[in-house]
From TrEMBL, chain A:
Superkingdom as given in the UniProt entry: Bacteria
Annotated coiled-coil segments of the chain: none
Family matches, as Gene3D superfamilies: 3.30.70.260
Listed name of the protein: UPF0237 protein FD00_GL001174
Annotated ACT domain residues: 4-78
UniProt similarity note: Belongs to the UPF0237 family.
UniProtKB/TrEMBL annotation, chain B:
Subunit-structure text: Homodimer.
Organism: Liquorilactobacillus mali
Annotated NCBIfam families: PRK05313.1 (NF003700)
Family: Belongs to the UPF0210 family.
Annotated InterPro entries: UPF0210
Protein known as: UPF0210 protein IV36_GL001221
Superkingdom as given in the UniProt entry: Bacteria
Pfam families assigned: DUF711 (PF05167)
């Protein structure tokens, strides 16, 4: 399944490295990355592919939250359908 | 996907309290009817436990995967007055306890359907159910009750209206929380996912998933960007926002139904406030341009809001149902509470607002010494508004023992807190004592 991982917060060294390293450990493939500064905040979107259809999102979200805390950013992961549903017919 | 759109969705969820207010599983109990109430209750318990086994788990999975809060997982069942009518029991507490036990074991937030539909008169089980209400509401925790006393097609059953005034009063003397779990309806709908008024209508499928969306904060935020623009722009902005909110409800409902192996029923497009900061319908009305909700212009602003929400949502989902519109509960809305405390909002204005919103007098605390006949008369007024305007109206009024106007009562959680509001002191006793049926209005004869 595809999911969108968003990272928002104050820019600092090591954010992309920290997030990608975690994803690599979890064998989650990064399909696309975009990164920008919005309203002064570092904003990164990653489209990722999770091969395990039964992946435990609760645990995944918690672990990402923990990494976000260390890096001083907010990391969220959501299945992509929610964004399509809201903005596309 | 465009970055801005992703960010917009994230803001709606994180900062503007966008959520799915409820996933409600409707379960028919018609196949549980038995003249032996013990056997009937056993069947009811087994059916609910089987059908809703995974409801909470699936709700939590969806929350985790899609990052969208689903505040309540609930169950609604066929009105118990119909199910229990075959038994010789004189009190239906046993049925309510069965529902309560099933709800607790499943971990759902509420179970609705301890209900009777008496708009034209009583059938065998109806009066027994109604007279069980004070005890049921007091002795169970998660059971929600409703009584439909009127409809556009049938008129208003004034005997039931008189009875419900006494029941509400009696229930309030047992505990101040009892009446938060009971609604008196006119034109009750059969697929409403919201409590306390949810029940599973007899015309529905055996089991169904209905979803109620919310998001007053999202609408308020969108309107902040169009300050000073014309009412056309206000309506258009609300429509577009309601569309997005509803699409999310449709997605969540579809997934939930699929995973539970149950047909998807409807999305209820409602703006349901909570006491949380920034989750208020009153503040939307104030954003439209009122200094305080309740002042002149409130009814017009609410009419626009209610209509625009429906128009925006209706194309966003496959089937619309339930109550669909703006809710105006006093205790659950920080802006409403503030307006009552400031003296700008009173019961009379709330009654006018119910003519154009999706519900009625909701979560309004009144002095505990209010006579039962006065409560009945308030129900009659609301039912009349519903009957004449072809809309659902509801009364969830809360007499609070030993409290006077200006004091406050705390319900806790999503139910919030409420200032005690004044009611008209003049008596309605002679009218309520008449009983009988107010005939259906002329415009109901459409055939």
């Amino acid at each position: 399944m595809k999911a969108i991982l968003t990272t928002i917060g104050k820019d600092q060294v090591g954010i992309i490295a920290g997030v990608s390293q975690f994803l690599a450990e979890k064998k989650i493939n990064i399909l696309d990355v975009s990164q920008t500064i919005m309203d002064g905040y570092f904003t990164m979107m990653m489209m990722v592919e999770i091969n395990d259809e039964k992946a435990d999102f609760t645990a995944l979200s918690e672990e990402l939250g923990g990494i976000g805390k260390k890096l001083g950013v907010e990391i969220k992961i959501r299945r992509e359908e929610i964004y399509h549903a809201m903005h596309q017919l | 996907m465009e970055t801005e759109k992703i960010i917009e969705t994230i803001h709606m969820i994180s900062d503007e309290n966008l959520d799915v207010r409820t996933i409600t599983m409707g379960i028919s109990l018609l196949d549980c009817i038995d003249s032996d109430s013990t056997r009937a209750c056993e069947r009811i318990y087994n059916k609910i436990m089987t059908k809703a086994k995974n409801l909470v788990k699936v709700g939590e999975q969806i929350e985790a995967e899609y990052g969208i809060p689903i505040i309540n997982k609930r169950i609604s069942v066929t009105p118990i007055s119909i199910i229990a009518a075959a038994s010789a029991d004189q009190n239906y507490l046993k049925y309510a306890q069965t529902l309560d036990r099933a709800a607790k074991e499943l971990g759902v937030n509420f179970i609705g359907g301890f209900s009777a539909l008496v708009q034209k008169g009583y059938q065998t089980g109806d009066l027994k159910l109604i007279r069980s209400l004070p005890q049921v509401l007091d002795e169970t925790d998660l059971v929600c009750a409703s009584v439909n006393v009127g409809s556009t097609r049938s008129g208003i059953n004034m005997d039931a209206v008189a009875e419900m005034g006494k029941i509400i009063k009696d229930a309030s003397e047992r505990s101040f929380m009892t009446n938060t779990k009971m609604v008196v309806f006119c034109n009750a709908v059969e697929d409403n996912p919201f409590m306390a008024g949810a029940f599973h209508g007899v015309g529905e499928r055996d089991t169904v998933i209905n979803v109620g969306v919310s998001g007053p904060g999202v609408v308020k935020h969108a309107l902040e960007n169009v300050r000073g623009e014309s009412m056309d722009v206000v309506a258009e902005t609300i429509k577009q926002t309601a569309f997005k909110v509803t699409r999310m409800g449709q997605l969540v409902g579809t997934i939930a139904a699929e995973r539970l192996g149950v047909p998807f029923g409807i999305v209820d497009l409602s703006l349901a406030p909570t006491p949380a900061v920034g989750d208020s319908v009153a503040q939307i009305l104030e954003e439209i341009g009122l200094e305080s909700v309740g002042t002149h212009g409130t009814t017009a602003a609410l009419a626009l809001l209610n209509d625009a929400v429906k128009k925006g949502g209706i194309m966003a989902c496959s089937h619309v149902g339930g109550l669909s519109g703006a809710f105006i509960p006093v205790s659950e809305d920080a802006g409403m509470i503030a307006a009552v405390n400031a003296g700008t909002l009173n019961i009379e204005k709330l009654e006018a607002m119910t003519a154009v919103c999706s519900v009625g007098l909701d979560m309004i605390a009144i002095p505990g010494d209010t006579p039962a006949d006065t409560i009945s008369a308030m129900i009659a007024d609301e039912a009349a508004i519903g009957m004449i305007n072809n809309k659902t109206t509801a009364v969830r009024i809360l007499p609070i023992q030993n409290k006077k106007v200006g004091e406050t009562v705390e319900f806790g959680g999503l139910l919030g807190y409420a200032p005690i509001m004044g009611v008209n002191k003049a008596s309605s006793t002679r009218m309520i004592a008449r009983g009988g049926l107010i005939p259906a209005p002329i415009h109901s004869f459409k055939n």
